[in-house]
Amino acid sequence: MSILATSYQLPAESSYQLPAASMKKQPATSCQLPARKGENWKLEAGDWKPDNGFTLLELLVVIAIIGVLIALGTVSYSAIQRKSRDAKRESDLKSIQGALEQYYAANDGSYPGATCVDYPGTALAEFMPQGVPTDPKSGNNYPCTTYTTSGYEICADLEEDETFDGTNCDVSVVNLQ
């Protein structure tokens, strides 16, 4: 497709000659280029070609938007993980409480321990075949404050209060008789 005529042709019977100045090729930037909607044109090696790429500014804006979305997703994901681990801790304590109460019922009103050193011990293995649950973040046993043959208190430190160190007693299961 020729955008700009480079020479003029007259019919052979005409004796009119164009001035030499008008025979020169006009600069390509002086003409109106046909463009389809949304199409830019650029000059390459003396010929106009459609420019189908993105500008640097457009790419930077897209990268910035993606960065913001990733940052928001990361924050949301870590908050969801904390809540999930806290829910697991509460569920684990209920499971331990259930096992201790089953032990109490099966052993004539006596709990398995004499001190916290005995927790969790092997006595709960019969009532917790998958093993005694541990903290989902640290992997340690849940701390106990009381573990005797007449009662127990087992704690879990929740991450929701922003003071998580694994030793606080934010939630506990208790049966002190």
Overview features:
single chain; 177 residues; alpha+beta; 2 domains; 3-stranded antiparallel beta sheet; two-stranded antiparallel ribbon; 1 helix; 15% strand; rod-shaped
Gross geometry: rod-shaped
Return residue spans where pLDDT drops below 50 for at least 5 consecutive residues: none
Strand adjacency order, main sheet: 3-4-5
| Radius of gyration over C-alpha positions, nearest whole angstrom | 40 Å
Strand element count: 5
Q: DSSP helix count?
A: 1
Return the domain count: 2
SSE order, one letter for each helix or strand: EEHEEE
Separation, N- and C-terminal Cα atoms: 97 Å
Mean pLDDT comes to: 77
Helix coverage percent: 25-40%
Oligomer: single chain
Largest sheet: 3 strands, antiparallel
- The computed structural class is alpha+beta
Q: What features would you describe in this structure?
A:
Strand 1 (about 40-45) and strand 2 form a beta hairpin. The protein has two domains: about 20-50, no CATH class; about 55-175, no CATH class. The protein has a three-stranded antiparallel β-sheet, covered by helices on one side. Strands 1-2 form a two-stranded antiparallel sheet. About 30% of the residues lie in helices and about 15% in strands. The protein has about 180 residues and is α+β, with helices and mostly antiparallel strands. It is rod-shaped and about 100 Å long. The longest helix is centred in the middle third of the chain and has 51 residues, at about 55-105.
